[in-house]
Amino acid sequence: MAREIKPGIYWVGAVDWDRRLFDELIPTPHGTSYNAYVIKDKKTALIDTVDPSREGELLKNLEVLNVTVDYVVSNHAEQDHSGSIPTVLKHYPDAKVVTNPKCKLMLEDLLQIPEEKFITVNEGDTLSLGSKTLEFITAPWVHWPETMFTYLREDEILFTCDFLGSHVATSDLFATDEREVYEAAKRYYAEIMMPFRTSVRSYVKKVESMNVDIIAPSHGPLYDDPSFILDAYGEWASDTVKNEVVIPYVSMHNSTRAMVDYFVTALIRRGITVKPFNLTKTDTGELAKALVDAATIVIACPTVLVGPHPAALYAAYLANALRPKLKFASIINSYGWGSKTVEMLTQSLTNGKVELLEPVVVKGYPKKEDFKLLDKLADIISEKHEGLNR
Ligand code: FEO
Q: 162 C-alpha to center of ligand 1: Å?
């Protein structure tokens, strides 16, 4: 159903209530939406499209509004926003795709859109629709190299595509339930934007310096109070870490489990917030979200066939690839007869500026002296955390 945002400006996307996995990788427990927008003027512009699985809804929305699309602005080439462009071009054969040169090349590669269909724009270029003006702002690396924002000057609406979005399916056009949207947006930031923290910071500043009445991302609800999401992004992308330890763990025969249970209590006793994640039960989005603020990660696992349990290796890979602002890392490991677990996990944690703290490695079930080593690790973490953010 098309929904009016301001006179002549409509949301024409699709809410995907049932989607539970994105890119065959990212769990989306609350569904998502693919937001597309129409600006009706002398000329009609469509800002982005929807995932191809939902293109029928987009076409219906355009039909109900009784518009002929003149321009399809593509802010991002990933298929959940661009994938319906070929179908839109079939229905509106005179429409042109407006995008930056890098995005054009990617759309040619990914969707085989012919070159003559494009109008290319660069930073600061404008496109008049009649009484309304679109301004294009290149914004690479949130989260692909070709991303851009589109600014509707007269109405002060900024279309940011993935940037500032959230994977949540809701009937609210605007972020009304701020608690729900905050959590969904944080998880989304962790999974998609966190590796590009430096870019994120600069775009937050840029958007803050503009006159923006409404932020219209391509996933989740819109923001009629831009400071809500900009302040949140500013905090998540800052260098400030919290007095928190994230413990992704897996245990086969309870030796690791016994150490994790003891260690969690030891950290709590020292006034540290602890977030343990049983890797066989949690979804990786929750783990990613916890990594946004934490100062320390401690990966705990048994040794399987000389190396770490694969679930722990995956957690280490993820913690590395998402580039959180972690300052410290350590490992808790139980093994039966031989182990290269510490070496292998350490190799996976080399990205970034993480200081590795002395791991606790135990043969079999932990003994009295092993628990003392866990207390020692908790003491070291506590001391390190006291020196944080000074
Ligand atoms: Fe929502 Fe990068 O696509």
A: 5
Whether ligand 1 lies within 6 angstroms of the CB of 80 is answered as: yes
Query: Can you state the angle between helices 310-321 and 341-348, rounded to 10 degrees?
Result: 20
* C-alpha to C-alpha distance for 270 and 31, rounded to whole angstroms: 38
162 CB within 6 A, ligand 1: yes
Any ligand 1 atom below 6 A from CB of 51: no
Distance (angstroms) between ligand 1 centre and the Cα of 77 equals: 8
| Mean pLDDT for back-to-back runs of 10 residues, the chain (390 residues) | 96 96 87 97 98 97 97 98 98 98 98 97 98 98 97 98 97 96 97 96 98 98 98 97 98 98 98 98 94 97 96 94 95 95 90 88 98 98 88
Q: What's the gap in Å between 251 CA and the centre of ligand 1?
A: 35
Residue of the nearest CA to atom 1 in ligand 1? 162
CA distance 188 to 39: 27
C-alpha distances in Å from residue 323, one per residue of 39, 94, 233, 277, 335: 37, 44, 15, 18, 29
**Ligand 1, atom 2: closest residue by C-alpha:** 78
CA–CA dist 311, 209 (Å, integer): 43
**Residue 4 tokens, joined:** 């009016």
Q: Residue 94: how many CB atoms within 10 A of its CB?
A: 8
What are phi and psi for residue 350, nearest 5 degrees?
Answer: -80, -15
- Cβ proximity of 277 and 386 under 8 Å: no
Q: How far apart are CA 76 and CA 48, in angstroms?
A: 8
